[in-house]
Structure formats: structure tokens, C-alpha cells
Amino acid sequence: MPTVTELPTPDPRVRMFRSDPEVDCFAVVTRRHVVVVDTFGTPGEAAQMLALLGDDLAGRSLLVVNTHSHFDHAWGNALFAPGGPHPAPILGSRLAGEVLRSPEAQAKLARKQEGDARFAGVVLHPPTVTFGGALTVDGGDLTLELRPAPGHSADQLAVWIPELRFLLAADALEFPFPYVEKDADLPVLLATMRDLRALDPAVVLPCHGGQHDASLVEHNLAYFARLAAHPDTTFEEALADLGLADVPNADFYRDLHGLNVRATRAALR
Ligand SMILES: [Zn+2]
Question: How far apart are CA 165 and CA 11, in angstroms?
């Protein structure tokens, strides 16, 4: 099982946990609640995060948020599900609930379990508190605004903490760039990115690609603007344009660049 480690953030109340190189999950420690944001790809990794939270759990109720239904964000839900080792309300969009209950999600799990013993203990659990639109969690000192952020996936939420101007962007922003699975999703993702820019965040914490300031939004928008102007832009050219020589998981992002190019060409037609 991958090891989960903690990384410091500019505010100790926002705790960041990494299963390297797959995903970063978070826990926001408010006066009333500890709000876990995403549950990793397996309950075992989620349990490591919970162990690292330690004393912060004392005297606070535990709430869990799924930013979206993708495996690396919600397949650790069993740890918090009713009857699980640490039952807690799991908040997510209505759509994320529908996806996690679908036969397609079960089929995806079966495929992953065939190829990788890591997923043997995964049981899919949808969020137990679902909503359409936005939801606000009042932690007593910090507020968490769960805001629709579709595009990367239709079911996605981003978490905005206005008191800190921290944006937990899920996969709506990424370093070096986010991606869409379907061509038709590109205008939706771009609209979400502009929405997030309008928040004027001080700190941007995506689930892939480390800690950033508001420049991540600008860089992500500039990437898609370059694609729209020059759809033949190669992955290497796109990185060079961003002032980057190389990035972690380069092969993975080269494939995603291909998806973005395809979506851009479709949008231009
Ligand atoms: Zn995702």
C-alpha cells in the first residue's frame, strides 16, 4: 500500500496529505469540525491520513467531503461509511452519489481489482449527504464553501475557505494543467476556471501538483488559450510556454495533453 505523508501548508489548520505520486487529500481543522476533503484511492490510505490527524480529532466532529467520484478521491470512503471503522457524514454532489452507485463504477472497480492487489479492500460507498448546487459548512471559525466546479468531471466540487482565501481546487486546476475526459466538457471547465479566478485566492491547493498561489489559475487558463490559438502545440511546447522543462508524471500529462488538444479542436470546429 502506498504510504501517506503530510506536507505543511501556509496555515496549520489546512492539513495536506500525499499518496505519492497519485493524489493529495486535505483536512481542514475548524473549531467545530475536522473536515476531510477526499479519501484517497483506498480505505487503507484514508486510515493513514486519519492516524496522522491524531489529536486534532479530539473534541471535534468528523465530516468528510468527496470533491468528485474519481477513484483517487472517493474509493477510500469505506473507512467513513455507515458501519465502517470511523463512521462520519460523507458530503458530495448528488451526481457523485449517482456515479458511485452506478454499474459503471462497479465495473471500473472490478477492472482495477483484477490488475492490482492494492484495490482488493475497496468497497464503493457513495456520499451519504448529497446536494445540488453549493453547500456551506460553518466550522465556527473557518467556513467551507463547497462550490460546483464541473468540467473535469460533471460531479465536481471545489472548496473555498473565505477567511483564509484558500482554494482547494480538486481537479479543476492542476499543475501543469487540468484535463477534460470528453470534448464537450472543455467550455464547462474553462467557465469553472474563470469562476475560481474571480474568487481571487491567495493559496491554491489542487489535488494534483502541489501548492500554488493564484498564478496557477492564470497558467492553466494561458495553457488552454495557447491551445485555442495553436491547436498543434506539442506537450513539450506547452511546457516550455509555461517556463517548464519537465514535470512529474510527464508521460501521464502527455496523454492528457492529447485529450485537451482533441477537445480544443472540437471546440474550434
Ligand atoms: Zn479527477
Answer: 11
Ligand 1 center–CA 192 separation, angstroms: 14
The three three-digit cell numbers of residue 264, written as one number: 480544443
CATH number of the domain that 43 lies in?
A: 3.60.15.10
Q: Would you say how long the chain is, in residues? A: 269
153 Cα to the center of ligand 1, angstroms: 7
Domain count, the chain: 1
Report field, pTM of the whole predicted structure over 0.85: yes
Domain membership of residue 159 (yes or no) is yes
Lowest mean pLDDT among 72-81, 143-152, 242-251: 242-251
Distance 38 CA to ligand 1 centre (A): 11
Q: Which residues pair with 144 in a beta bridge?
A: 137
Distance 55 CA to ligand 1 centre (A): 30
Ligand 1 centroid distance, CA of 72 (Å): 7
Whether 115 shows a pLDDT value over 90: the answer reads: no
pLDDT of res. 70 = 97
SS3 146: strand
pLDDT tens digit sequence for 57-77:
999 999 999 999 999 999 999
What are the cell numbers at 120? Answer: 482488493
Q: How far is the CA of 154 from the centre of ligand 1 (A)?
A: 10
